[in-house]
Write a structure and sequence with these properties.
single chain; 189 residues; mainly alpha; 0% strand; rod-shaped
Length: 189
């Protein structure tokens, strides 16, 4: 039996082993093929994830760049607003200073105009006085002559008074002297 059984085992068993081997090969091949498909799918999935991650990163970079650009535009706009406000403030200050200078100039010109007007009026009055004096110059000359004549008369009167006083004093002294002489001669005669 053992011989038969080995023959039997051998023929039938070879078939069985062959069937098992084929089944195993099929199973292994199917399993290998399934594993290969799974691996390809996994590689494909990883590739898709990588592409998705790259796309997400690209979109995030673009969004960041847009945000940075928008931030720079906003900062530039804010800076321009600040500069415009500073320019406006400087213009207001310059306008106020110019208005004050114009006001000062108008006041100065007005004051100078008044001074010139007063000076012109003073010259006009002086001219009128000179004209009046010229037109009445003969009267002034006559008055001056009369005044000088009066002064000369006063001097002459004072001289006459002094001369009269001198002569009166002389006469008085001579009379007194003669009276004394007469008094003294009566004593000795």
């Amino acid at each position: 039996m053992p011989r038969n059984s080995s023959k039997m085992i051998g023929g039938h068993q070879v078939q069985k082993i062959a069937i098992i081997a084929v089944a195993m090969l099929i199973a292994f091949g199917a399993n290998a093929q399934s594993s290969l498909v799974n691996q390809i799918d996994a590689v494909h999935a990883v590739e898709q994830q990588r592409k998705q991650a790259e796309e997400t990163a690209r979109l995030e970079r673009e969004a960041e760049a847009r945000w940075q650009a928008e931030l720079r535009r906003a900062e530039a706009k804010e800076l321009e607003k600040k500069r415009a406000a500073e320019r406006a403030a400087q213009k207001v200050a310059a306008d106020a200073k110019a208005a004050e200078a114009r006001g000062d100039k108008v006041r100065d010109q007005s004051y100078e105009d008044e001074l010139r007007q007063l000076e012109i009026e003073a010259r006009r009055l002086e001219l009128e006085r000179t004209r009046a004096r010229v037109s009445r110059e003969n009267d002034f000359i006559d008055r001056d002559l009369k005044m000088k004549d009066a002064e000369a008369d006063v001097v002459q009167s004072e001289a006459d008074i002094n001369r009269n006083l001198s002569e009166g004093t002389k006469t008085l002294l001579e009379s007194e002297g003669q009276a004394r002489v007469n008094d003294t001669s009566g004593w000795f005669d």
